[in-house]
Amino acid sequence: MSTLHTWEKVDAYLTERLIQQDSILDRVLANNKQADLPAIDVAPNQGKLLNLYARMIGAERILEIGTLGGYSTIWMARALPEHGKLITLELDPHHASVAGHNIALAGLSQKVEIRVGEALEQLEKLEEEGTAAFDLIFIDADKPNNPHYLQWALRFSRPGTVILADNIVRKGEVTNRHSTDPRVQGVRKFIDLLAEEPRITATAVQTVGVKGYDGFAMGIVKS
Ligand SMILES: C[S@@+](CC[C@H](N)C(=O)[O-])C[C@H]1O[C@@H](n2cnc3c(N)ncnc32)[C@H](O)[C@@H]1O
User: CA dihedral in degrees (177, 180, 184, 189; nearest 10)?
Assistant: First the structure.
């Protein structure tokens, strides 16, 4: 029988076998805990998945919406070439400050820029600045805004850009069309948009593990 306990054991096994022990990432998670950040960062094997995706597409420019303490940021930024750039958006100045410290610890400050404030405002600013298209966009902030983040992601894309979004299953609640949870409704609108938007082709998968039962969506921009 599958239980959270089994999922945790399997995650621990896979992580122990396939993810190298990493003192910097361990310290990042310890710093986050010490600074009272919620432990809602991606799991180690999911962080590595983000890193592999970035490497598979040779990403040079990455946009992340939702930094927290920079754990996923570091996984992705490590995949960048020397001249690569990652911009990450974070509402909470405390989270951003912890992330800044962690990113410096990982030796990635040259490649990573943290922008503090409402992501929707930061995205508008990026557009005003005429930012170049991104190769990979990771949406992982407030779920009610996911449909808006997807629209922005499409604006900052080129054919071939990969768009990922985390936490789209929400313990299965995503199928509950009557849910009163704005996060569930945000994810449902996001999935609708993915289904209807002709510029992107997408899929989504359920995941289980140390972070419980959830899932992520992934699409590639066609035109
Ligand atoms: C799930 S956490 C991000 C986890 C991170 N990507 C990781 O895996 O290490 C979501 C983050 O989004 C931030 N956030 C929430 N609403 C936001 C908004 N409107 N604009 C920007 N950031 C927001 C939260 O403060 C939080 O730090």
Answer: 60
